[in-house]
Design goal:
It contains 4 helices and 22 strands. By secondary structure, the protein is mainly β. The strands form 3 sheets. It has a 16-stranded antiparallel β-barrel. Strands 1-2 form a two-stranded antiparallel sheet. A two-stranded antiparallel sheet has the order 3-4. The longest helix has 30 residues. The protein is globular, with a radius of gyration of 23 Å. It starts with 11 loop residues before the first helix and ends with a strand.
């Protein structure tokens, strides 16, 4: 489809015939590996839209020579950040409302060279197959399937559902979201990996993700941006996917009987955030707008067990973001703890922070630098990490098509220190 806008004109009988064909195809494919079945279902859906769109174009062309420019399949609409994005397909109509669908794709080929084994590695860091739209004039929806690290040394990539949610706007300042999506914690984690200043998120964000306190999880969320987008809030109840392991002879059981509660509050002092949005941050806005945002967040999970230890898990932190003209700056601090209530192991505490900034040159080139620290376990004096990164970004079409390069100087307080500095270059296509 090449991301182009199309018009779908179908009778109810035609839609039923096509949907029946798709479901039959999906059932056959789902008899194999589950993840492969999901991908085949998505492919079938895209093919369905493509075939239907082609029919619609033929019908429209024969019915009338006067075709609206906005309905033309070659029409592109400029995004707010200056890049180009595709418009949604014209809605399918029914007696109970419309259904819209916009397909998307993200591909991130990467080259990496590390000093440990002098390895030159070419691989696909991320692939995302995605779609979004509205349904029956009541809810927004979004789904995304991910395949990571295709071709990476010693990696076994597989397809997984990354996002699958429904969002119900019940008031201009209140919306309820159900499903699998980004947990309302940590600005860095809530920033799409397609809009990062560097190729990867911070060390502290990775540590929080390992504990199930950041990144994608399943739950229900209330969120909104009242005061014209000046104030943002989000709080909800979630399942911590980091503690969903039954255990085996080679792996400790990790379970959580309690529900995890999280919350986040942000105030924007300069330009307000987009009303109704959620998890739409960017690490660099490419010279557009002026923002000064201060955010705080917290998370708490009870009745957690890992092996023979039982504990409560909590985290809290804050972040600051600023951009004006060519300058962007972001900083964040987070602290977490496993407060042991029953077991022989001591309570675990860890924290980390980072500060990063960028400077845009000629609207297309960006210099970037980041310093970060992580002390994953205060009980271990040899696990502290101190990384310094320098980067250079080239924006061909904003964040939709860009090239990123970075070099990471890794300082570690380990007993057996290794020269494991890392150089990476990545190309991204995202729409």
């Amino acid at each position: 489809m090449n991301g182009r806008a199309t018009t779908i004109i179908m009778t109810r009988e035609m839609r039923q015939m096509n949907l029946k064909t798709i479901w039959m195809t999906a059932i056959v494919k789902m008899e194999g590996v589950a993840c492969s079945g999901i991908i085949m279902l998505l492919v079938a859906l895209v093919l369905f839209v493509m075939v239907s769109s082609a029919k619609a174009q033929l019908i429209s062309a024969s019915a009338s020579a006067d075709t609206s420019t906005n309905d033309h399949p070659n029409n592109f609409v400029p995004a707010k950040d200056g890049s180009t994005v595709t418009t949604s397909l014209t809605p399918l109509t029914s007696s109970v409302g419309n259904i819209t669908f916009t397909p998307g794709l993200r591909v991130q080929p990467r080259y990496a060279y590390d000093n440990i084994d002098k390895n030159n590695d070419f691989f696909i860091r991320r692939v995302r197959l995605k779609g979004k739209g509205t349904a029956f004039d009541l809810t927004d929806y979004y789904f995304e399937v991910k395949i990571d690290n295709v071709g990476l040394f010693n990696s076994r990539p597989n397809a997984q559902v990354e996002n699958a949610w429904l969002n119900f706007p019940i008031h201009p300042d209140i919306a309820i979201r159900f499903g699998l999506y980004d947990l309302v914690y940590d600005r860095n984690a809530l920033t799409s990996d397609s809009k990062l200043l560097f190729l990867e998120r911070s060390l502290i964000t990775s540590a929080l993700t390992g504990l199930g306190l950041a990144d994608n999880t399943v739950g229900v969320l209330a969120h909104g941006r009242p005061m014209g987008g000046r104030f943002s809030y989000g709080f909800g109840i979630f399942d911590n996917l980091g503690f969903e392991v039954a255990g085996s002879t080679t792996e400790l059981a990790r379970k959580a009987d309690g529900a995890m509660t999280t919350g986040r509050f942000v105030y924007d002092f300069l330009d307000p955030a987009t009303p109704g949005g959620y998890a739409d941050y960017q690490s660099t806005y490419l010279g557009k707008g002026e923002r000064l945002s201060l955010g705080v967040n917290g998370a708490y999970l009870t009745k957690v067990s890992s092996g023979n230890n039982e504990f409560d898990l909590y985290a809290w932190g804050g972040d600051l973001f600023f951009n004006t003209g060519p300058v962007t700056f972001e900083a964040e601090y987070n602290r977490y703890a496993e407060d042991v209530t029953n077991g022989a192991s001591p309570s675990l505490k860890g924290d980390g922070w980072y500060a990063q900034g960028g400077y845009l040159l000629y609207s297309a080139f960006e210099l970037a630098a980041r310093y970060q620290e992580l002390d994953a376990n205060h009980n271990d004096p040899d696990d502290k990490l101190q990384w310094t990164s320098v980067g250079f970004n080239i924006y061909l079409r904003g964040h939709n098509l860009k090239i990123q390069a970075e070099y990471i100087f890794k300082k570690e307080q380990a007993k057996n220190k290794a020269d494991n500095n890392l150089f990476q270059v990545q190309v991204q296509l995202d729409f």
